[in-house]
Amino acid sequence: MPNVTPDPAPAAHDHDHAQCVAGAVERVERRCAERGLRLTPLRRRVMEALAESHVPLGAYELVERLATSGERPPPMSVYRVLDFLVSEGLAHRIESRNAFLACGHAHETGEVALFLICERCGATREVASHALGRDLAWAARAAGFEPRQRVLELAGLCAHCRGAAPADGHD
Ligand SMILES: [Zn+2]
Ligand SMILES: [Zn+2]
Prior knowledge:
The protein has a 3-stranded mixed beta sheet with strand order 4-3-5. A two-stranded antiparallel sheet has the order 1-2. The radius of gyration is 17 Å and the shape is globular. The protein has helices at 17-35, 41-52, 59-67, 75-87, 130-142, 159-163, and strands at residues 91-94, 99-102, 112-118, 124-129, 151-156.
């Protein structure tokens, strides 16, 4: 499936993207229902905006995106929604980018979430691994270390960018 056409949404071309967004909204609806929490319009909009992007979004980028589709939410409210989504496992914080990504996985204990971050287009893909989780747990235990978070970030080039023409190098 070679594809050398520049694509404004590089990670969105190889899958049913509408499904990402619908699935994300469904997950936040279900989680709120399970916990007896209210799915506020802002919670829904933030989840939608995160799922629409395969590039992790910073809080202020989110505010800007939401402002184009309605009134501008206060940044503090967006931060609170992001905290909520992260604590409920519906989104992840990508530390190296200080940005957030919708999560499409039902995480199991013992798994490690591995984020493959493209340095050219920013697209970030999440891979869950039990084998990595096991190895990390062994390595940590051998050092008498108690891990707090089980998240790894790998920087590199995504499949799309590896197949695309070289960047013009202006960033
Ligand atoms: Zn996840
Ligand atoms: Zn890329």
